[in-house]
Amino acid sequence: MVQLKYFFIICALILSCREESRPIISANKPIYFEPIDSIVSKTDSTREAKDTIENKEHWKRIYQFEVDQRLRSYGVQNKETKFKIVTPFGEIKVRLFNDTPLHRASTVLMIKQKLFNGSRFYRTRKNFIIQGGFTDGPGAYERLIQIGQYKIPSELNPEKHPHIKGAFALAGSDFSPGIKRDKKSNPFTFYIVQGSIQNDASLQNIENTYGLNISQDNKNKYKKLGGTPHLDNQYTVCGEVYAGLGVVEKISKVRTNSSEHPLESIYLSVELIK
Fold first, then answer.
1. Furthest CA-CA distance within the chain
2. Are 115 and 147 in contact (CB under 8 A)?
């Protein structure tokens, strides 16, 4: 009886001492989202009050009817163009294009609100793309609602920004079968082109199949660098990888199931480069 008594006492102590710890930011494990209020209030003591106010402004929900105005205004106040994606395989550095201002502003907003942190590359295919974004971690959906479930108007410019190797783009916003896509972008998921080297025959076939008219300049790029030309005129390319293409290639080669989902989770975090 005495031993049984001590057993219950020890169990009670163990249960009472459980830590409610959060994982440290790491590319090898998920980064769970903290409540919105705590993110806003945790400002560095040296940060100016103005920055704190701006951070709170970022949390005003964006509605579809005002998305163009809100993103353009946000872009004027937040001019960053470079960021890095930290993965277990290394870092991928991306430069956003200023001539896709809505996509640039929205991506910077997502990064500053840490929406990509704790997400993963959930789709990979060798010689095609790696795709990642929005996580299912605690608090993620609530944060998505707080920011606003908007679609980004198309800023297609395949002549200037084709889907060559290293292209950064946001995924489509409409995945309903049988419904014609409106070519707007989903701000919460992105992909990076890994692609394959093209030749005249493959490019001709793609033009015929997808009704494209690829310029000779872009054909030369596809033949030299590789890419996914059939995605041109479907999704807005809004950036490019300027360092870390080897990391993209490694991720594209991981083992996947039949749905192209990696067998082992590839978690990521994203931060701006100043």
1. 87
2. yes
d(CA 245, CA 193): 10
Query: Phi and psi (nearest 5°) for 139?
Result: 85, -5
**What confidence score (pLDDT) does residue 249 get?**
96
Q: Tell me the H-state helices in the chain.
A: 2-16, 36-41, 49-57, 67-77, 101-112, 140-147, 200-210, 216-224, 245-252
What separation in angstroms does the CA of 204 have from each of 125, 198, 199, 209, 234? 23, 10, 9, 9, 18
Q: What is the CATH number of domain 34-272?
A: 2.40.100.10
* pLDDT averaged over 10-residue windows placed end to end, the chain, 274 residues: 46 39 29 25 31 46 93 96 97 98 96 90 95 72 79 96 97 64 88 96 96 96 97 96 97 95 95 94
* Region for residue 178 given its phi and psi (left: phi exceeds 0; alpha: psi -120 to 50; beta: otherwise): left
Q: Are 35 and 141 in contact (CB under 8 A)?
A: no
Per-residue pLDDT at 11: 47
Domain ranges of the chain: 34-272
In 36-175, alpha helices (H): 36-41, 49-57, 67-77, 101-112, 140-147
User: Which 3 state secondary structure label does DSSP give 104?
Assistant: helix
